[in-house]
Specification:
Elements: E1 27-30, H1 34-45, E2 50-53, H2 84-87, H3 104-108
Parallel strand pairs: 1-2
Length: 109
């Protein structure tokens, strides 16, 4: 399945540090699941200093199977309910070797 964002329209992956603006107040991102990672990326690219806090033992939020924080509803056979193409970041697509609907361990990776 082709990606919904055409290759020519994808942002280049960030491979060099982005300088943060020390005159700005620090932001706080609560949770390092899908939304928290997206928020952290946006803040980073905007040069806004931030801290990201995750209650679980690793990043991944609801995609972390047997999350020790006891708040994840992830179960062993969980798969995404939307395609990898729709769930991927424009500059970080899911690997082409993944099935159309990735498993929880693939999403969390």
């Amino acid at each position: 399945m082709p990606y919904l964002v055409k290759a020519k329209d994808r942002s280049a992956a960030v491979t060099a540090p982005v300088r943060s603006d020390g005159s700005l107040p620090r932001a706080c991102v609560i949770g390092a699941g899908s939304s928290g990672i997206a928020a952290a990326k946006a803040l980073y690219l905007a040069g806004i200093p931030f801290d990201c806090f995750e209650q679980g033992g690793a990043i991944g939020g609801n995609w972390l199977f047997q999350n020790p924080n006891g708040r994840s509803a992830c179960y062993e056979t969980l798969e995404i309910n939307t395609s990898c193409a729709r769930m991927a970041f424009s500059d970080f697509p899911m690997p082409s070797t993944y099935p159309a609907y990735a498993r929880h361990d693939q999403v969390q990776a």
